[in-house]
């Protein structure tokens, strides 16, 4: 191959604009190999006569060549780039025009004359090229400590101890207050706050009494255990909890899990003592799990239960709970112990002879009353007390009706006699030996995780609405501690419920003392009011449960998932139908498994896109999203929006090569300038208004090896690889691996605009 010397440099007269500062850069089409190794020369204009003739036979290339060979003078192409690196236009010349030196000769400002190969109109300097700085040296211990702090202490809970001029006594008080948040709000407690907490506590007590009895029935436990669980745990949470509005007590999800899982192994009717012992043991393991997650700062584990998973799971669980209330609705005595929709419906139809119309009337009447009260409070938040008092009102009215008409309503099942007095000790009832221990452990883990997720989600929602923050790990310790203590006092799994917390918030609670007021109201009920519940019909309890969980069927949230992310919608539906037709744990496991698969797909198949310049600016954006973005001739600008790990390194290498191959094919079809440079935008973070798009935030050894192979492939094809603005950790690893040593002076830039401007100018030298 004969090397022809390049023609003299010239100024492109066709793009002379006196009012703007632009630089004209000329380059010529080299003979080179395409990315797939076949000889190819890109077209330089619309006419096929402008294409150079490719000689037959092998084409010798220097093995270490990193720059194009001397170009052919016949194929002359020019592009125009402004001084800030934005692309302004391109054009073709059949032959090089004569050289016209810029004013002032070759000297002048940086980038302004012939010395650097850029002819600048109006003697305006090209933008200064900034150096990409290497990160400062950090010891291995400091790196490990910083990383562990970010993993386990992202909220920096110890910042209060780093204040200046703190005495040891002050630090001690801060430490005690961190462990016992009650000390913090007690120091500023006054009568106005007490009045608000008193009203809120009495309001949620009116809801907690019927809900406690109802949820205990849902868990197949004696109703009194529901009231026990609303007395001791709220007192403990008031001391350890950091949320001001969380209403503590039994929750529907945990009750459903305990009722469904334990009843498959032990009958709550014929083996009542064993069943209750397993429920207390389940509560112990749930509390130990929750406390352990909080102490070891492992709260991020529950984040794997995504919103899509919980939306489908809660809806499926709500349907299961409602189906279970068909027993109370129809007054059926012999009801299936299974939870799935098909066995339940078969049981309802098969036991048609046990239906009682009086029970149906009572249940539907009070269900309608509760739903109407719910709608009134939803439309007018100031009337929150309507829905809060509706359950207790229903219990009182239904009890009076059954008591007055007891001679005519003998077929209506009632709660019966409840024992009076405070919680008895249940330490001797804990089950640690026997064939059912594994059932208690499994149920405790499942109930503990889900009740913990519900409690923290509700606590964070209330905190965000009142402009304060809660420590998720501290909440785990508080919820776990009250469950561990509760299992010793005849309580089962409790947490912060949606309905109870919403009522507490709307009632104007200021501190966790509202839970203490509620617990004292429950205590009075346990001591003096138990005989009043003798004639309370089970049908009204079924109505209370149904009205409480019907809000978990969130059709609007499912529709939003469909609009936003079809895969999230699929996850939600898998969770919903899995719970409905298979079982609660399997349905949840399916949803979590698909969520993990989604994470793996996002990591192993990251998003890549081609960027173009928005004319007149230094902004480069996705060509498929911005119609006004324009390709820069001779450049292929790609962005990778993911860390480069072993799981995606090979895919990224293949995908980048495919981008190059597709760009070369496009050039052949359109006649654009030949591809000479590939820019990889690996910026750590892009800020666009208020949205953050995370890109390459990390790289491992497999990712670095991929870059080595990619650069060797591009060197063989005479393509110039450029990296733009790597973050500190990526820059450090590239430097330590000696990968940056394979680049020349024009291989690493701070911005895409600087890379386009500087690399283009180098083609004139």
TrEMBL record:
Residue ranges occupied by any STAS domain in the UniProt entry: 625-759
Membrane topology: Multi-pass membrane protein
GO terms for cellular component: membrane
Native source species: Linum tenue
Comp. bias intervals (Pro residues): 55-73, 94-104
Pfam families in alphabetical order: STAS, Sulfate_transp
Biased composition range(s): Gly residues: 105-116
Protein's recorded name: STAS domain-containing protein
Localization of this protein: Membrane
UniProt keyword annotations, A-Z: Membrane, Transmembrane, Transmembrane helix
Biased segments, Basic and acidic residues type: 7-16
Alphabetized PANTHER family for the sequence: SULFATE TRANSPORTER
Biased composition (Polar residues): 80-93
Record GO biological process: transmembrane transport
TM ranges: 274-296, 308-326, 355-372, 384-405, 476-499, 511-534, 540-562, 574-601
CDD domains linked to this entry: STAS_SulP_like_sulfate_transporter (cd07042)
């Amino acid at each position: 191959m004969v090397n022809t010397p390049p023609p003299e440099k010239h100024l492109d007269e066709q793009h002379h604009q006196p009012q703007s500062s632009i630089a004209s850069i000329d380059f010529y089409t080299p003979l080179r190999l395409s990315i797939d190794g076949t000889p190819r020369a890109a077209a330089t204009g619309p006419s096929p006569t402008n294409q150079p003739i490719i000689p037959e036979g092998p084409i010798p290339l220097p093995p270490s060549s990193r720059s194009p060979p001397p170009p052919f003078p016949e194929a002359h192409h020019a592009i125009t780039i402004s001084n800030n690196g934005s692309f302004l236009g391109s054009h073709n010349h059949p032959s090089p025009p004569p050289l016209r030196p810029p004013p002032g000769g070759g000297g002048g400002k940086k980038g302004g004359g012939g010395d650097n190969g850029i002819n600048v109109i109006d003697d305006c300097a090209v933008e200064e090229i900034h150096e990409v700085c290497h990160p400062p040296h950090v010891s291995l211990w400091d790196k490990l400590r910083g990383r562990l702090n970010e993993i386990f202490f992202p909220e920096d809970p110890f910042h209060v101890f780093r204040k200046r001029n703190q005495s040891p006594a002050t630090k001690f008080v801060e430490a005690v207050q961190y462990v016992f948040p009650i000390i913090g709000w007690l120091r500023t407690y006054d009568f106005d706050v007490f009045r608000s907490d008193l009203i809120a506590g009495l309001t949620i007590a009116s809801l907690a009494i019927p809900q406690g009895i109802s949820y205990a029935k849902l868990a197949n436990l004696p109703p009194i255990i529901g009231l026990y669980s609303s007395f001791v745990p709220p007192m403990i949470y008031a001391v350890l909890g950091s949320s001001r509005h969380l209403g503590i007590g039994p929750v529907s999800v945990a009750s459903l899990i305990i009722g469904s899982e334990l009843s498959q192994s032990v009958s709550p009717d014929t083996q009542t003592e064993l069943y209750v012992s397993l429920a207390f043991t389940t509560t112990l393991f749930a509390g130990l799990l929750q406390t352990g997650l909080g102490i070891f700062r492992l709260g991020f584990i529950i984040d794997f239960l995504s919103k899509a998973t919980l939306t489908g799971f809660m809806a499926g669980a709500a349907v299961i709970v409602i189906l279970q209330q068909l027993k109370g609705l129809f007054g059926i005595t012999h009801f299936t112990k299974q939870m799935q929709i098909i066995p339940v419906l078969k049981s309802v139809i098969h036991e048609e002879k046990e239906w009682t119309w009086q029970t149906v009337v009572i249940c539907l009447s009070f269900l309608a009353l509760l739903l109407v009260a719910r709608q009134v409070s939803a439309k007018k938040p100031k009337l929150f007390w309507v829905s809060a008092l509706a359950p207790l009102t229903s219990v009182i009215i239904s009890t009076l009706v059954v008591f007055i008409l007891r001679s005519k309503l003998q077929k209506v099942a009632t709660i019966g006699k409840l024992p009076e007095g405070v919680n008895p000790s249940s330490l001797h009832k804990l089950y640690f030996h026997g064939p059912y221990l594994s059932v208690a452990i499994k149920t405790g883990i499942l109930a503990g995780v889900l009740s913990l997720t519900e409690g923290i989600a509700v606590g964070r929602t209330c905190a965000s609405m009142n402009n304060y923050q809660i420590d998720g790990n501290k909440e785990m310790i508080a919820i776990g501690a009250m469950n561990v203590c509760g299992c010793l006092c005849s309580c089962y799994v409790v947490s912060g419920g949606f309905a109870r917390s919403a009522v507490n918030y709307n009632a104007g609670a200021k501190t966790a003392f509202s839970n203490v007021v509620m617990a004292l109201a429950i205590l009075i009920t346990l001591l003096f009011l138990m005989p009043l519940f003798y004639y309370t019909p089970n049908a009204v309890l079924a109505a209370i449960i149904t009205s409480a969980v019907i809000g978990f069927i969130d059709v609007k949230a499912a529709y939003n998932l469909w609009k936003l992310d079809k895969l999230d919608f699929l996850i939600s539906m898998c969770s919903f139908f899995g719970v409905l037709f298979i079982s609660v744990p399997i349905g949840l496991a399916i949803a979590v498994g698909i969520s993990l698969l989604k994470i793996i797909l996002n990591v192993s198949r990251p998003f890549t896109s081609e960027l173009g310049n928005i004319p007149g600016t230094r902004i480069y954006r996705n060509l498929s999203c911005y119609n006004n973005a324009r390709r820069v001739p001779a450049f292929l600008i790609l962005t990778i929006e993911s860390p480069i790990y072993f799981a995606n390194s090979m895919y990224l290498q293949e995908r980048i090569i495919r981008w190059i191959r597709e760009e070369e094919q496009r050039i052949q079809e359109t006649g654009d300038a030949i591809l000479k440079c590939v820019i990889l935008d690996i910026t750590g973070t892009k800020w666009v208004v208020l949205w953050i798009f995370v890109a390459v935030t990390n790289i491992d050894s497999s990712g670095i090896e991929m870059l080595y192979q990619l650069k060797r492939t591009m060197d063989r094809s005479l393509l110039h690889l450029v990296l733009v603005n790597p973050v500190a950790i990526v820059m450090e690893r590239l430097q330590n691996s000696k990968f940056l040593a394979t680049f020349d002076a024009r291989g690493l830039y701070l911005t895409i605009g600087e890379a386009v401007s500087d690399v283009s100018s180098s083609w004139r030298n």
